[in-house]
Write a structure and sequence with these properties.
Chain A contains 15 helices and 10 strands. Chain A is of the alpha+beta class and 395 residues long. Chain A folds into 2 domains: 39-359, Cytochrome-c3 Hydrogenase, chain B (Orthogonal Bundle); 362-395. At the A-B interface, strand 1, helix 4, helix 5, helix 7 and helix 14 of A face helix 6, helix 9 and helix 12 of B.
Chain lengths: 395, 303
Amino acid sequence: MSHKVVIPIGPYHPLQEEPEFFRLYVEGEKVVDINMVIGYMHRGIEKLSESKHFDQVAFLVERICGICSTSHPFAYVNAVEDLARIEVPGRALYIRTIIAELERLHSHLLWLGLAGHFIGYNTVWMWAWRYREPVLDMFEMITGNRQHYAMMKIGGVRRDIEEQHIPALKKTLDELVRAVDMFKGAVMDDPVIHARLKGIGILSRQQAIDWAVVGPTARASGVNIDVRKDDPYGAYDKIDWSVIVEREGDIFAKTKVRILEMYESISIIRQCIDKMPGGQIDANVKDIPPGEGIGRVEAPRGECYHYVRSDGTNRPIRHKVRAPSYMNVASNKVAAVGGTISDATITLAAVDPCYCCTERVTVIDKSTDHKILNGWDLIKLSQEKTENLKKSLKV
Amino acid sequence: MRLLFNYLIFPGFLFSACIGLMAGWIDRKVTARIQWRVGPPWYQNFVDIIKLLGKETIVPETAKLTFLFAPFLGLLSLVLATTILGKAFILPSESFLGDLIVILYLLIIPAIAIIVGAFSSRNPLASIGASREMKLVLAYELPFILSIIVVLIKCQGAIQIGSILNHQINFGPNLASVSGMVAFIVAILCMQAKLGLVPFDASEAEQEIMAGALIEYSGLPLAIFRLSKAVLLYTTPLLLITLFWAKDLSPFSLVGKYITLLVIIILIKNTNPRLRIDQAVKFFWGPVTFLALAAVVLAVFGL
């Protein structure tokens, strides 16, 4: 059969709940070519950032992505600290590391669930997201928010991890190890999952280098890159941990890398808790001198890069952001072509493209049609929920 | 008049659809509990159908008349099969020679209706769904028929539901032998594919081809397809009970057996990812057909 049919995935498609557009050219079930369109979500963040002062930009870049909502501000503050040559207090570095690793945990669990969903295994989806909840609870306990933690600040962090937080955090990590053990068993020993994930969507080592992929996508293809090791920031150089690298380059290897990375993250957080020094959490930065700086962070999806230039005023005159998915999505051109449509969907999702979306809630009283909750009420509700959570965790 | 009553109300359309929708609710509820969710209230499937009936029916410009004709064809033949099967239970003496063959033919028609409807909508996603459905039908029918041949051998070649039932009442269920057990397992796997549930739901794969074969359907025709699925969820397990597991025909034991089969269906559904269509075909034509053939050979030797 030489008749080519176009299968559209996006801009609206149940597979990827975000505006990306993949045109799959198929012959029967086989994908022969693929065309990608991105850019539906352009919000002008870099331009916006030039109109904010340095402290506000940290909140702005947090909104680039709901999932990596600490990686972007982390990279941004790294860039500004590089620019201004700021010494960050040791305790702040450890707290940053803990937050970044908690984020990796929740992001990898989220991906694991979605990957299950994409191959029609909804039980894995729901279970992964259930075990992700305690991680989000930890965020809420420490920072007050499930997402958008607003922890990063130029010269330090905004909130301390207090002594009474530690037992709940340790307990959650212990429970999480058991959950990850379970997922490891369920995913790695299931013959049907092997049949679905092994040997498909292969990105060879050379292809991974040629297409310049980053993060778990590269590490699953045998490319040993990880900003945390290669260019340590935060407290990663003071912690004992290893980079997970697999050679196969297929979807199964990508899954394996992410599952094994969760163990590393848990171990990093535990070491951070033990080694965390006391003292200040903020260097109290006053002025940003003229100059330029870069910040790199290993986000859950790969290297996240920020460049900031200052002219000595209180605003950046240029701010450039490169998110990891931008590098990874293009590699689908080699990974997805040649497989079937069924393989293509999980292959497209296996680079863990970042979902950036926001939600707005309006609660309406049916009898009067009046809006009964406004923004402030929602914030109050959220604060009450945090209080209840802290009570239940005995913090 | 009585025939009409049988066909439309009991044991035909209304009865089977209600049971099927309730079974669908049990499926949704149990699935939800397995997945740490709450799950819908018991009437959810009924209101879903009622809601669909009230929705606008959109017919794509490219579609042919068969697009609207297909869902009715599927439901009508399925209900006919259900009626014949149900009547054989109530009045085994009234079943006619060869009714089993009629039922087997009628049970294929819903799948054919989906294929015809999908192709006539001329949507590329629908045609991929339809071609997957077609491959799946070709894949599971062979082992399914083989497993039924085992039953026929056990019952001395009776191709009449009534006599199959009588034979089991007198000599014990077909299940209670090696060949019967193997054939029963094969039939359960084929049933999962017939119902279009995970791991054999490639033709509707939401994440890949957005409901595939059913993508262009809306309103009444979609409701009819949903009803067909519900009736199928009643008929196929009942057929399996009839053929393999019919020693005790009291309503209580029938309900128990039905729920047992339902639980097996739900468990398979919730502990597996979706198979690619080529893997599903290989699975049915490879190990499953081999098992079915082994069962036939065993049955010939009287095991």
